[in-house]
Amino acid sequence: MAQESDHNTVKSCCSTDRSSVVLAPKNLKLKAAVKPADSKPAADSNSDTTGMLFIPGGTFLMGTNDKEGFAADGEGPVHSVTVNSFYMDETAVTNEQFGRFIAATGYITEAQRFGWSYVFHLFVSEAEAAKVRTVPQAAPWWYPVEGADWNHPEGPDSTIEGREDHPVIHVSWNDAMAYCEWAGRRLPTEAEWEYAGRGGLAQKRYPWGDELKQGGEHNCNIWQGKFPVKNHASDGYLGTAPAKSFRPNGYGLYNMAGNVWEWCSDWFSPTYYQSGESDNPLGPRTGEGRVMRGGSYLCHSSYCNRYRVAARSKNTPDSSTGNCGFRTVLSAPQQ
Ligand SMILES: [Ca+2]
Ligand SMILES: [Ca+2]
Ligand SMILES: [Cu+2]
User: Fold this and answer.
1) d(CA 61, CA 77)
2) I want to staple 115 with a disulfide (CB 3.0 to 4.6 A). Which of 26, 78, 303, 305 is the partner?
3) In terms of residue numbers, what domain contains 144?
4) What is the pLDDT of residues 7-52, one digit of tens each?
5) Which residues lie near ion ligand 1 (Cβ < 5 Å)?
6) CB 8 within 8 A of CB 140
7) Which-ligand-closest: CA of 92?
8) Which ligand is nearest to the Cα of residue 222, counting in written order?
9) Whole-Å CA distances, 91 to 32, 81, 165, 168, 302
10) What pLDDT digit, counting tens, does each position of 80-95 carry?
11) Does residue 146 form part of some domain?
12) Residue 145 belongs to some domain of the structure
């Protein structure tokens, strides 16, 4: 299998971007139909908070100086940030919820426009694997599979049947924004995501505390074993878990750590925390990648321990993978 060079300069996490393999989009014209989106938290007109939890605003210490962190990702310095109250989805958006959006709008996702998406190699059938010609050099466990999309997570020979309550995957940032627009919601800012992820705790490594396991029990869906070849799945899941699995955090939010990465509205910059922006920060004004938070079922302490609550990553807004989804938020009326 030939390998194309990877455009990532920062050591990649368990994810990968669309430009890492050279495959021509099958339908470039349609791609223009994706509207560029503004990352500003709009004054939300919608007041339907079904499936959401109230997150009371406050001031917290964002970021970490943890020695287990990735300094190159810009996880530090720790800095004080204030966020207003908001509502956040209790779980990541599920296949069932995303399916309702597709049924209502006929929206075509970017994976469908490009004709392919990244599937983790162990999930790809022999027949589909035989068609794969290039893989991202820095993340060769990702196969660009033609016909893989949210409704066919492992490729054209797969379905989401039985996984309706799992988080939707193979959605790009642009797809997530389109869903938000339809639902009258928005993506969380990176600050909102971390504030919510911490669940009211201060400067802990995980949403539940500093220890990965509590009483010997798994708290999240990540990778056990030898990445990327042997997953023991002692947490119960090789791939995605139902969106409402494991114990929720202090705010009642499920799977903020692990399961699937979650898109945030911000552009990513490893130096952004040095900007001093502390009042409901919206992220850098420009960038190349959008922030992803929380890590996924592929994260492992030996390679990418980005299931820590301060961990950050990014991907280009048109990229889609089998381990990234999103959840939505809604601004609460200001007091
Ligand atoms: Ca797992
Ligand atoms: Ca997650
Ligand atoms: Cu990872």
Assistant:
1) 10
2) 26
3) 46-335
4) 333 456 788 999 887 554 444 333 333 444 444 445 556 789 999 9
5) 221, 233, 235, 237, 297
6) no
7) 2
8) 1
9) 30, 24, 10, 11, 27
10) 999 999 999 999 999 9
11) yes
12) yes
Residue 206 Cα, ligand 1 centroid: separation in angstroms?
16
Distance CA 330, CA 335 (A): 15
Helix (H) or strand (E) holding 110: helix 110-114
Residue 49 token pair = 């908070």
| Residue listed under structure tokens 């039985």 | 162
Give the residues across from 313 on adjacent strands: 292
Centroid of ligand 3 to alpha carbon of 332 (angstroms): 31
Q: What is the CATH number of the domain that holds 265?
A: 3.90.1580.10
Are residues 166 and 94 in contact, defined by beta-carbon separation less than 8 angstroms?
A: yes
Cα 42 to ligand 3 centroid, rounded to whole Å: 30
Give residue 80's identity as a one-letter amino acid code: S
Whether 29 is covered by a domain: the verdict is no
Q: How many domains does the chain have?
A: 1
Residues making up the chain, counted from first to last: 335
Task: Say if 11 falls within a structural domain.
Answer: no
pLDDT digits (tens, 9 = 90+) for 261-274: 999 999 999 999 99
Task: Convert the pLDDT of each residue in 269-295 to its tens digit.
Answer: 999 999 999 999 999 999 999 999 999
pTM: 0.91
239 Cα: distance to centroid of ligand 1 (angstroms): 6
* Ligand 2 midpoint to CA 293 (Å): 7
- Calculate how far, in angstroms, residue 21's C-alpha sits from the geometric centre of ligand 2: 26
pLDDT number for residue 23: 53
* Contact between residue 316 and residue 18 where contact means Cβ atoms under 8 Å apart: yes
Q: Are 21 and 135 in contact (CB under 8 A)?
A: yes
